[in-house]
Amino acid sequence: MKLMAITAHPDDEAGAFGGALLHYHARGVETSVICLTPGQAATHRGPARSDEELAALRRAEFAASCRILHVDHGEVLDYPDGGLVRADLAAVVGDLTERIRTIRPHVILTMGPEGAVTGHLDHSMASLFATLAYHWAGRRDRFPEQLEAGLEPHRTQKLYYSTAAFTLPERPPVSPPPCSATLAIGPWVEGKIAAFQAHATQAPLWEAFARSMRRFGDKELYHLAAVSAPSVAEAESDLLEGVSV
Ligand SMILES: [Zn+2]
Questions:
Q1: What pTM does this model have?
Q2: Dist. CA 80 → ligand 1 center (Å)
Q3: CATH number for the domain that contains residue 12
Q4: Distance 17 CA to ligand 1 centre (A)
């Protein structure tokens, strides 16, 4: 069984999906994370003196976080942080489609088009790119050059958006996807915090993240956004429910 998360920035894999990645690794699921940008536009920049230096630091931090989360395949692509809205749609979706056709996950996780609780534009764009890649990876008429190069179409059984049961009053208003799946991650809260803290350049965010995780973070909420077999949505407690190998 394989689970893939598609994210915008180094630290999203820990902050948004850390519980699911640890939970499913513990159940023997092979996990992968594809992150679209190296996070070079971040507000918190550690010792970096340039965008290039910050990108290099954050790639290393992503790798360290993925080790803590036991991610089997972690990859940071090279699209511009803060600039996904201007990225070439076919190029980004093509890159993601190629990863999906290569890795062949059973379930894909990404953020919602609202941009998660922060409403970050890169999160919204990652959601849209990942959604198209989810749908197009299974079709022979999308990116046929990948098929000519030897890849096969791949239909992933489920697509989930991460969601939340709260909004942040100090942020722009967002309309989150309704929760359809509640994943208990109590045993993995400390691991999720540790993975987030592997992002040393983001140290000013550590304390607030750890505090809110320890108070409210024993669940990750998801919205079932697409399925390969038509169905009626029912409340779930397991993202692999109904998924077959
Ligand atoms: Zn982010």
A1: 0.98
A2: 13
A3: 3.40.50.10320
A4: 11
Q: What is the pLDDT of residue 140?
A: 98
Ligand 1 centroid, distance to 149 Cα (angstroms): 33
Q: Using the mean position of ligand 1's atoms as its centre, give its distance from the Cα of residue 105 in Å.
A: 22
pLDDT digits (tens, 9 = 90+) for 83-103: 999 999 999 999 999 999 999
Tell me which residues of the chain have a pLDDT lower than 50.
none
Residue 236 located in a structural domain: no
Domain count, the chain: 1
What domain range is 62 assigned to? 2-227
Using alpha carbons only, what angle is made at residue 152 by residues 224 and 27, rounded to the nearest 5 degrees?
A: 45
